[in-house]
Amino acid sequence: MRTTELPLVVVLGDQEPPLLDRVKDRARLRRVGEADLAEALREADALLVWDFLTEALPAAWPEHGGPRWVHTASAGVDRLLFPALLRSGAVITNSRGVFEEPIAEYVAGLVLAMAKDLPGTLDRQRSRIWQHRETERVAGTRAVVVGGGPIGRAVARVLSALGLRVALVSRTARGRDPDFGRVYGFGELAGLLPDADWVVCAAPLTDETADMFDAAAFARMKRGARFVNVGRGPHVVEADLVAALRDGRLGGAALDVFRREPLPPDSPLWTAPGLLISPHMSADTHGWLEDLAELFLANFARWTADRPLRNVVDTTLGYVPMSEAPGGTPHTEEGSP
Fold it and tell me: D-isomer specific 2-hydroxyacid dehydrogenase catalytic domain: from which residue to which, for each copy (predicted)?
């Protein structure tokens, strides 16, 4: 951090984040949109990526100088891992700690909605059709949760509480996990898919996880299984998912993230049978913006005091590595809303 004057904190976003007036006596704040980002970055000491869906950073990043600390209001950091930023040596931190429980609740809601055919009930209500039906129990069914970081672990815990038998899949396999007994490695996923009734993707986006759910993966899943993605859009080959739904290989699916957002009106996903679409909202609950701001402010206090920052991303891995979570729960990777 430069010490000659108050540090310049550039905030990227069209909307003003809440609570930042708390640091106006300790920082010069400059909020910019994408058009003014390149100029602002040349003088910035720190960058708050409030608009975490932006794709403007690679082109705007300065060849020399620039922020020494970049904080994103998201868990996923794949949009920040471009060569110029990595070469700069800037420290990257994320917003781990805000999204885990809301996403887990959302996934549980999707699982119950599909098992209990709530979309079918709403369709019949709109058509004033009284049609008694039987639905499924989720207790005793098998779920595979892909992503062993805080978000995946939270999803696995909530599904377990509903009575599902959950297999957690992480980058690295390990035994004697205090919550799940055994954690499987990515290399074991193919062998788990044929027995899964539910497959949930909550993994970070890395070279290893991109396109991991393709035609081959869907073909391995049992007929009628359901698929949920709350990770990143590029985890899924969307055309292959549409094909698996249309031919009845999958019994249903739910996507909260997409390769292109907003999802274009002409996307075949809109009309894929049995697909629930939500606009990247699984983590967004009342008060979440204040929670994100509070997390940034706590790290800002550490930064100005030259104390170690929290949620520092390992740029070689693409997520925040953690050897031990609160309460002694080991895990190694971060999820990615």
Answer: 33-313
**Looking at 71, 153, 232, 331, which residue is catalytic?**
232
**Any catalytic annotation for residue 261?**
yes
Question: Are 321 and 131 within 8 A, CB to CB?
Answer: no
Catalytic residue among 26, 261, 290, 307: 261
Give, in words, the CATH class of 100-277: alpha beta
Strands 174-177 and 181-185: antiparallel
Q: Do domains 8-98+286-304 and 100-277 have the same CATH topology?
A: yes
3-state secondary structure of 42: helix
Q: The pTM is what?
A: 0.91
Query: Is 280 among the residues known to form the active site?
Result: yes
Residue 262, preceding peptide bond in cis (omega within 30° of 0):
yes
Class of domain 8-98+286-304: alpha beta
State pLDDT tens for residues 216-228.
999 999 999 999 9
Structure confidence by residue, pLDDT tens digits, 270-324? 999 999 999 999 999 999 999 999 999 999 999 999 999 999 999 999 999 865 3
Assess whether 331 carries a catalytic annotation: no
Which DSSP letter does residue 306 get?
A: T
Residue 308 tokens, joined: 């170690």
pLDDT in tens, 156-190: 999 999 999 999 999 999 999 999 999 999 999 99
Catalytic annotation, pick one of 280, 331, 333, 334: 280
